[in-house]
Amino acid sequence: MPYRRRSRSSGLFSKTIQWGIFLALLGVGANYVYKQYFCFNPDKILAESVLKEKTFASKPVEVVSPRYKIKAYLLEERTAPIISFSFMFKGAGRASDDKDKQGISALTAAMLMEGTKELTSQEFKEKLEDYAIGISFSSSLDDFSGSLVTTSEHQEQAYALLKDVLTSPRFDEEDMLRNKLQLQKLFLMQKEHPQSILNLKFAEYLYGDHPYGRNPLGKWEDASKLTSEDLRNYMQTHLAQNNLIIGVSGDISADALGTVLDDIFGSLPQSTAIDFVRNPDVDFKKSDKNIEFTAGGQNISRFATKGVARDSQDFYPLYVANHIFGGSGLSSRLSKAAREEKGLTYNIYTYMSLADKSPLLQGGFSSTADKYKEVEEILRQEWNKFGKFGASKEEVENAKKYLLASYNLRFASVANLSEILLYMQKDNLGLDFLQNRNQKIKKISTEEVNKAVQKYFRPNGYISVNIGSFTQNKEK
User: Fold this and answer.
1) Are strands 144-151 and 134-139 parallel, antiparallel or unpaired?
2) Is the per-residue pLDDT at 417 higher than 70?
3) Which residue, among 121, 116, 123, 120, has the nearest Cα to 161 in the 3D structure?
4) Average per-residue pLDDT for the chain
């Protein structure tokens, strides 16, 4: 996947998976994305996958609940007795946190997993385990999201639990204190991990005082003072029916879903009171920034230039171009030049990030300090060469074949499918996206790709922020 979306999580601070989400956001950041999506050869997987010939003969349907007119995209999938809901409150993510309550959305996501009015934290988690129900919440940069996965047998229990969480969360002081202590540990970890420091400085350098430049964890001085009343107020003002979108897949009919939507989400407030987040003004002509940090033994770089929104006409041409340049793992131009030919790094990549207010084409690499300058120069040379001469017809055709063949691997579970249905709505892709996506890829010409290359791979046109040891390079 040569572009990046959010990770699914069940709140930011509890259990092992939440530490993994933290690392994805701050600890290993872009490195995690690279390893997760780009560093595998799918040929063998595709050859053996039951999904390789999967087609979608029927389009998803839009379901509108009978009472509250709550909308959802539904794709029935009756092959297994599983139902998956993915839902999102648009604009309710971390960037919308009040300036003096930074971290409130992340803490709310964590605390929603700590029980309901009728169930303590322990009792709630036992219920989830007893009925094999998965409920999760997460706060991304732009949005506040949740998910529900249940078997058909226990769907009634699952719906009741999710409704209670959204309408009568417990928010005990003891649970609040425990989550704040875990949050405090995460703040301390940030100061010790070079990738975490780099990610924070990178956002700060790009966005300054814009909400996109904030620490994803918020501010400790703000978060430490948050009360249960603050969290309830956040939910009342940010999680409402008018900013709610829902994707559902699995063993459920449209008629049944309409009733369920009213039952689960009908008690939410009708409208939000979210402050508008302005578009940031990013200067991509700024000079590179180096951060001296000797611990860790590696120099790490992140770089970015202006990207495109998901609904832009440039999206698919740039999508293919990025795959060729740095998004295809070991076969990318960057990897061949810096890793395969010279063995200077194990890790160099690019990807498209799709933040609502500032889509980017970005990437990164790591190397030993003595090899850093050489890798940096290879990146600059390859970037400028790609921008000047573009991609060959053979490269474009190979990229398109990969993107077409690997697409169905995303539909390995109903949970993945419900999330795709969610983003089809967020990005206004239409009900026929599943049928039309591959056709859009097939129609892209080499000329269109190279037009995008010239537009977005401008000479020396990216901002770079780097961390490591740079003194020895100066001495040379």
Assistant:
1) antiparallel
2) yes
3) 116
4) 89
Q: In this predicted model, what pLDDT tens digit does every residue of 330-384 receive, in sequence order?
A: 999 999 999 988 889 989 999 999 999 999 999 999 999 999 999 999 999 999 9
The SS3 call for residue 233 is: helix
Q: What share of the chain is helix, strand, coil (3-state, %, to 5)?
A: 50, 15, 35
Q: Give the per-residue pLDDT at 355.
A: 97
Side by side, the strands of the sheet bearing 61-64 are 61-64, 71-76, 244-250, 82-89, 144-151, 134-139
Buried b or exposed e, range 142-177, using 16+ CB within 10 angstroms: bbbbbbbbbbeebbebbbebbbbbbeebbbeeebbe
Contact 137, 144 (CB under 8 A): yes
Report the candidate in 363, 416, 9 with the shortest Cα–Cα distance to residue 216: 9
Element (H, E) at 146: strand 144-151
Burial of 282 (0-12, 13-18, 19+ CB in 10 A): buried
Report the top-level CATH class of 289-475.
alpha beta
* Alpha carbons within 13 A on the beta-carbon side of 425: 24
User: pLDDT digits over 239-259, tens only?
Assistant: 999 999 999 999 999 999 999
Cα(46)–Cα(138) distance, rounded to whole angstroms? 31
3-state SS class at 342:
coil
Topology (CATH level 3) of domain 9-25+53-265? Cytochrome Bc1 Complex; Chain A, domain 1 (3.30.830)
90, 245 contact by CB (below 8 A): yes
Whether the domain at 9-25+53-265 and the domain at 289-475 fall into the same CATH topology: yes
| pLDDT > 70 in the chain, percent | 87
The 10 Å CB-count burial string (b at 16+, else e) for 178-208 is bbbebbeebbebbeebbbbbbbbbbbbbbbe
Residue 59, pLDDT > 70, answer yes
Residue 349 to residue 33: CA distance in whole angstroms: 10
Domain ranges of the chain: 9-25+53-265, 289-475
- Asked if 97 contacts 211 with a C-beta cutoff of 8 angstroms, the reply is yes
Tens of pLDDT, residue by residue over 15-54, are 433 433 344 344 333 333 333 333 334 444 445 544 454 5
Kindly report the pTM of this predicted structure.
0.89
Write down the residue that tokens 């407030």 correspond to.
269
